[in-house]
Request: fold
Amino acid sequence: MQHPVIIIGAGPIGLAAAANAAERGMDFVVLEAGPDAGSTVGEWAHVRLFSSWFELIDPAARRLLEAAGTWPAPESDAYPTGREWRTAYLQPLADLLHATAGGSVRYDSRVVGVGRAGRDLMVDSGRENDPFAVHVEGPQGRERLLGSAVVDASGTWTRPNPLGADGYPALGETENAARITYGIPDFRDPVVAARYAGKHVAVAGKGASAQGVLVGLARLAREDAATRVSWLLRRPSVGDAFGGGDNDQLEQRGKLGQDARAAATSGLVTNVTQFRTQSVTAQDDGRLSITSGTGQQISDVDEVIVVTGFRPDFGFLSEVRLDLDPALGATRVLADQIHPDHHSCGDVAPHGYRELAQPEQGLYLVGMKSYGRAPSFLAMTGYEQVRSVMAALDGDLEAAGRVELVLPETGVCNGAGAFDEADAAALSSAGGGCCGPAAAEPQLITLGRVSE
Ligand SMILES: Cc1cc2nc3c(=O)[nH]c(=O)nc-3n(C[C@H](O)[C@H](O)[C@H](O)COP(=O)(O)OP(=O)(O)OC[C@H]3O[C@@H](n4cnc5c(N)ncnc54)[C@H](O)[C@@H]3O)c2cc1C
Reply:
């Protein structure tokens, strides 16, 4: 290939793509906006994952690291925190890839545009024969790199959904940003704890991460009785937030789910259902008042924590041709299988380069970003995606079509929120996720093969 494959993002999936490229002897450049590997994982460093190390290390990356002979492989059945995922795996992998002939991993390099060299979105002629032009902003200013292909593994973490129920920031949300946090605060950090202890905190969101926040706040409330928590839910009942009916697998989630349910029903948390935020206003005393579309008000709020999910950034893809699901913004053929309304963990069909291909030949959206706004992405799924995509880019269609999605027998769900060893132990005993009974050891199963 005349130009390297350009990989956007040095997260778990971008680095796995690079590991596959390195194994195949392909030239590659990884462009990472942050200052080091896994920088968005670093933003939830304190959160313990639901997946064990076995599920969090890409097979090609493992082979490279083990061959280098200096990598202390983590215990397969342990559950790392985000911090451990970075320091014990992602950063050593990135360092190794950067030292690989034909490869480089560049930090502080934010991709701001992907297009075809010399051809904007409208131009048809010769489109697929020209390289990609990737515009990057870094310490040296603006740069333009040419690539034979682009693998976008930029994730979704950098674009949290707003508090506003319309999908846009609520009126006053931006103006009152100083009291609003998006993500999962580390309540074990004394500075963070001091920010929330003894305060009235509103939490918006219903997923496992939101539930992890509730558990952390309930713990604070037990230590400081002045702490008040209002849990804002769009749905009609709290019970519903933990699962639908009798068959809902969330019933079987480990200790996190149980603790969140206990917190929500303990009296430490006030549950506010059918609340769709329309505006946020500052009271005279500086605290916030949050108003719903029906006029309901939550007053005297000191802090708001928004955990309402994430959305992909398509801003830098405006000059390439995409085919996305209109609701999820996910790769279109995956949408039915990953929609939160009907997706159950682990039941995504095996998929690879064919399903991930975009109308723009040579462009692939992989990893968390391939799921758009759907929350159920698993690293293992992403590792299989990039194994297939990189094989296809290498012209090895036999390997690319041979999808071997390997999952542990229990399945594992996204959306961690466990904060400590006790929670991790509970996760272990509960099977590590929400998908059924525990298996004694993770087991490999080949789920299927994409037909030629
Ligand atoms: C709290 C939490 C817990 C999770 N727990 C699990 C779990 O237990 N098991 C599991 O399998 N999955 C889990 N996931 C889901 C998923 O595996 C992770 O989110 C994973 O980090 C996704 O990897 P990624 O490489 O697709 O995206 P990311 O890890 O987000 O990496 C994307 C990278 O791209 C960079 N980037 C973004 N924009 C640009 C740009 N324009 N230019 C250059 N670089 C850019 C970012 O800085 C980042 O480093 C969890 C997710 C969250 C949020």
